Amino acid sequence: MKSIEANGYTVFFNKNGYTSLNHYITQKNYSTIFIISDTNSNEKCLPKFLPLLETDKSIEIIEIESGETEKNIATCVEIWTILTELGADRKSLLLNIGGGVITDIGGFIASTFKRGIDFINIPTTLLAMVDASIGGKNGVDLGNLKNQIGVINVPKMVVIDTDFLTTLPQNEMRSGLAEMLKHGLIFDKNYWNEFKDLSQKDFADFDQLIHRSVEIKNEIVLQDPTENGIRKALNFGHTLGHAIESYFLENENKKTLLHGEAIAIGMILESFISWKKQLLSEDEFNEIKSTLNSIFEIIHFEENDLQPILDLLIHDKKNENGEIQFALLDGIGKTRFNQKSDNELITQAFENYKS
């Protein structure tokens, strides 16, 4: 697959990615190379990756537990301390090998250690390939609040090897699929239509769908790197989705949702709001709802779940002057951002989701 030129870095794919990575490391003459991975990627992905890494530099592997609960400042302090003890300097390189938690936290650690060292993302999950590793957003959660602490800082390159997807369970694949569906809904109706019948797709088709998803996100980010305008469209489904994800994460009586599972719910809810604001037709809303419900499990909400989720909305990063900001659909393939919705309409959206 053809590489994609992003804002100050390049996204490389499959075999070409390793060739480019090895050439880059040789040219830059780094002092040491550090790898951040989690228990899953360490077990399933590093055995493939390490033999393809051509370097005579010292390599140190720093492993953390897998899962969103590790994406916090305490983990950063632990890794900053390890880097210091192992003699990392300004000429060290950090390779982030794993899913979205690893690319998010690894980019943040690199961006802040000694005021910034180089890092490269090697995403190993579908979610990280099409979303988390692209665009330069790095950061950690603050308690159960998603991505409250962070920076925008781009990697030196991204290497996407789709062979890593063979290590993923189906729920992780669906989690990444949510972001791909979102890219179609906000930017490219034809791309959305590709997902109407996934049973007709084979793995070769999926490579091209991944490539197009990265293209879409990159096209948006190139226009608005710091999220002052069109990049806000990427938040479709995330205002309510993040609140739901945070609520389920902190509530011991709830099953923890993967990011894409929460975002799929958020997209249905925010599509309902788009319909009720006459931005989306009823047929388009029903199409979105039925397609997403055919892929993702329908989650049960109790009556007393709603208010805590509404309370979490105030912490959303997009909010301005105390008002909750939504990115809504303006028909399939287009968006309007900086949209508002009152709690009554949000409540109606949850009622519709449950019906």
TrEMBL record:
InterPro entries: Dehydroquinate_synthase (IPR050071), DHQ_synth_AroB (IPR016037), DHQ_synth_fam (IPR030963), DHQS/DOIS_N (IPR030960), DHQS_C (IPR056179). Its EC number is 4.2.3.4. Residues 62-174 form the 3-dehydroquinate synthase N-terminal domain. One of its GO terms (molecular function) is 3-dehydroquinate synthase activity. Residues 176-319 form the 3-dehydroquinate synthase C-terminal domain. The keyword Phosphoprotein does not apply. Its cofactor is NAD(+); Co(2+). Transmembrane segments: none annotated. Catalyzes the conversion of 3-deoxy-D-arabino-heptulosonate 7-phosphate (DAHP) to dehydroquinate (DHQ). This is 3-dehydroquinate synthase. It comes from Flavobacterium macrobrachii. The gene is aroB.
